[in-house]
Amino acid sequence: MHSFPAFHALHTFRRWRARAPWNLAVLAILTLVATEARPADDPPLQAWMKANTAPAVASGDLPALAIAFDKLVGFAPKDKEFANWPSIARDGAAAARAGKLDGAKAACRSCHAQYRPKYRLEMRSRPLP
Ligand code: HEC
User: Fold this and answer.
1) Looking at the whole model, is its pTM more than 0.90?
2) 84 alpha-carbon distance from chain centroid
3) What distance in Å separates the CA atoms of residue 102 and residue 126, rounded to the nearest whole number?
4) CB contact at 8 A, 107 and 95
5) What is the pLDDT of residues 21-45, one digit of tens each?
6) Model pLDDT for residues 92-102, shown as the tens digit of each residue
7) What does the alpha-carbon distance between residue 10 and residue 107 come to, in Å, rounded to a whole number?
8) Distance (Å, rounded) from C-alpha 39 to C-alpha 104?
9) Ligand 1: lining residues by beta carbon, under 6 Å
């Protein structure tokens, strides 16, 4: 009986349970750290998008969107593979200033379609300029 793997597993579990208060505390802390750490681990541009563009679109805040698009012009990677980035962002800013939320959203989609996968592959960890 003592050599049954199931018995060993049970025995190990009982020993673990005997120390349960500490083990559970450590487990709880590790879980917390693992889940809490994630937002801070967002890559720079993604974190910026989530904090700036997404809430402005959600609330239809056109002036905030115009400012975000202006900033995005300056975030353009220098690499010529991203050549249309500034003009897409400028179109977005112009649409936001003209009161056109749909036009602004089209600029979001256009840049994401053209550049998001490439950006993620090549320069995701790049700090924002
Ligand atoms: C000129 C380019 C460009 C424009 C314009 C742009 N984005 Fe982004 N966006 C990106 C890139 C590149 C990423 C990927 C960043 C990463 O994953 O590290 C991204 C990521 C995001 C993310 C992170 C999560 C996800 O879905 O990938 C959100 C949210 C987002 N953008 C929202 C917006 C919204 C809303 C707008 C329009 C108001 C917008 N973006 C306009 C380039 C752009």
Assistant:
1) no
2) 23
3) 29
4) yes
5) 777 777 777 776 665 545 568 999 9
6) 999 999 999 99
7) 59
8) 26
9) 43, 45-46, 49-50, 53-54, 57, 65, 72, 85, 88-89, 92, 104, 107-108, 111-112, 115-116, 119-120, 124
